[in-house]
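Ex. 9. Protein: Release factor glutamine methyltransferase.
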Amino acid sequence: MNYKEWRQQAEQQMVVKGYEPNAIQWFMMDTLQWSRTSLILNEMTPMAESTLKQLNDGLSQLLTGMPVQYVVGQSEFYGRQFKVNSDVLIPRPETEEVVHYFLTQLAAAKVVADIGVGSGAIAITLKAERPELRVIATDISFQALAVARENAQRLQRDITFLQGNALQPLIDQDVRLDGLISNPPYIGEHERTLMDNSVIQYEPHVALFATQEGYQVYAAILRDLPHVMQDGAPVVFEIGFQQGAQLTRMMQQLYPHITPEVINDINGHARIFHFKWTQP
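Predicted C-alpha cells for Release factor glutamine methyltransferase:
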C-alpha cells in the first residue's frame, strides 16, 4: 500500500464515522514530519510495515473522535509548536487574536500575568514576542502547569509559574501587574449539550466549565484586581460570544468608573473584553 491509498482509505473511514476527513492529512504530516509538499511528492511511495502500523495506531484513535492534536501530541499556536495532552486545552486560532490585541496594549509594560495558563501557549508567546517582559503564569491544575513548564523549557522561555486559583497566587506574593490576560473556563454547564462531543470527551473539564453560568472565574479575577493591578494597566479576557453584555454589567457593579469594551474577532463574534485598570 502506498501513502495515497492509505490516506484515501483513512479519509473514507473518517467520513463514515462523521468526523472531519481533513484531519488525516494533518495527522500524516505531523506523524511523518513531512510538509504538505513532501506528502504529495511521496504519495505513490510504498509504505514500510513499521510506518503502516504507526499510522494505523493513530487512525484508531482518530476514529474514536480524539482530536488530531492529542493524537500527535502537539498543536501550533502563533507559529510555534506546543506539547498538548488531555491535561490541557488545545490552543485555538481565535486566541491568537486575543494575544495579538493584548500585545498592542502593553506599551512600556514590565510585568504581566496569564491567568489559567493551560499549555502555556499564551504566556510563552508573550515572552517570545516581548522578551523584556517578566511573564507570570498561574493555573489551578498541577498537571497543566507541568505541561506549560515543559513547553517553556523546550522553547527556552523564562516564565514564572504559580499554582493556585485566579489571582490568589499573585496576591500571596504581593505582585503588581502592568498587564493581565486570561482565557479562563467560561462555558456554563447549561451549554454542555451544545458542544462538540470530542471536546466533551477528551478536553479537560476543569479548563472548560465554570459555575455561575460560566462567569465564576471572571468574577473571581475582577473581584481581586485592586490587589494586583497598576493604574493604567490593560486587562484582556477571552470571552464567549454571548458574554460581553453580562461582563459589562459585572464591571459596572464593581467598578462603575471604568468603561470596558467588547471587541469582535475576524469572524464577527464577540471575543475580547478589554479595559484599562484604574483604582476605585
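Check your answer against this statement. Residues 3-72 form a domain with the Helicase, Ruva Protein; domain 3 fold (CATH 1.10.8).
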